[in-house]
Design goal:
- It comes from [Clostridium] innocuum 2959.
- By secondary structure, the chain is mostly helical.
- The protein folds into two domains: 192 residues, no CATH class; 69 residues, no CATH class.
- Helix content is 70%, strand content 3%.
- Strand 1 and strand 2 form a beta hairpin.
- Helix 1 runs antiparallel to helix 3, helix 3 packs parallel to helix 5 and helix 6 packs antiparallel against helix 7.
Length: 278
């Protein structure tokens, strides 16, 4: 295959805009599943750009699609930003300037930190404000209540989609090569990985609810349980341990569906025999 230079790139501004608002981008949660979550939608979002970048290179196009049906999950409004960066890197890869592993690493490194920011802004803040104003208007008989909610929530979301996609593509081209050359890329990936581990640790503490109902001793009304001892060592230790166990099983290629069914059986059995608190 003849190598092309960056100056001959086929991606145009209109391509990035279409990517930010195509079916895959707007449907990030339509095909969500427990195994790979938003992977199909992300691949759909990138598909037309990949066809342009790898025009005449069927193997490169096939490898790119395979790369982008790997696990992916992010606040949907920020997916075009990652898509912009990926588009630029795929363009660089078609010129032999980066490899596919670097693209996957960037996606993985960005998911956790961006989701933490995006969920806080859109789910924890903007949606709450929009619902509050919309319900207030609706309760007073104003028919524009649902419309106001829709506008307050979606106007910032679509602005972020548009500018995020173009900004992602811009920084992908301008800075990724420079960062790779001076070693900053490795530092960025290391820092993002540390932040991602911190986010996962917090999520395992707040989102994995497991309470052991095993009593060790009882003095009067004071009951000492195994759960209270573990919480004294480190709150959320059971949840963290469970998260790492699932991570280990997934690395062993255990089917995620089997893990879900096994968790259901374990929970029911544990509650029935009094090991787990109901």
């Amino acid at each position: 295959m003849m190598m092309t230079s960056k100056s001959d790139k086929s991606i145009q501004k209109a391509d990035i805009t279409r990517m930010a608002f195509n079916q895959g981008s707007l449907g990030m949660e339509f095909s969500w599943n427990y195994e790979r979550q938003m992977h199909i939608a992300f691949a759909m979002m990138m598909n037309k750009i990949l066809k342009k970048v790898y025009a005449g290179d069927e193997e490169g196009y096939r490898d790119a699609l395979t790369r982008h049906v790997e696990f992916f999950n992010i606040t949907p409004q920020l997916a075009p930003f990652v898509g912009g960066i990926v588009a630029s890197m795929e363009e660089m890869k078609s010129c032999g300037e980066v490899d596919g592993e670097a693209i996957s690493s960037i996606k993985t490194a960005l998911m956790g930190p961006l989701s933490g920011i995006g969920d806080s802004v859109f789910v924890g803040c903007l949606r709450v404000i929009a619902v509050g104003i919309g319900i207030s208007l609706a309760q007073n008989g104003n028919m524009f209540g649902p419309i106001v909610y829709f506008l307050i929530y979606n106007i910032p979301a679509f602005i972020i989609r548009y500018f995020g996609a173009h900004f992602g593509y811009s920084i992908g081209f301008k800075y990724l090569q420079r960062m790779q050359a001076n070693g900053m890329m490795d530092k960025l990936l290391a820092a993002a990985s540390i932040l991602g581990v911190m986010v996962i640790g917090c999520m395992s503490k707040d989102m994995v609810w497991t309470t052991l109902n095993v009593e060790l001793s009882k003095v009067g009304e004071e009951v000492t349980t195994l759960q209270s001892i573990l919480d004294g060592i480190m709150p959320g230790l059971i949840g963290l341990g469970g998260t790492w166990m699932y991570f280990w099983l997934l690395k062993k290629k255990v089917n995620p569906i089997m893990l879900i069914l096994g968790t259901m059986v374990l929970g029911i059995a544990g509650a029935y025999f009094g090991i787990l608190a109901g």
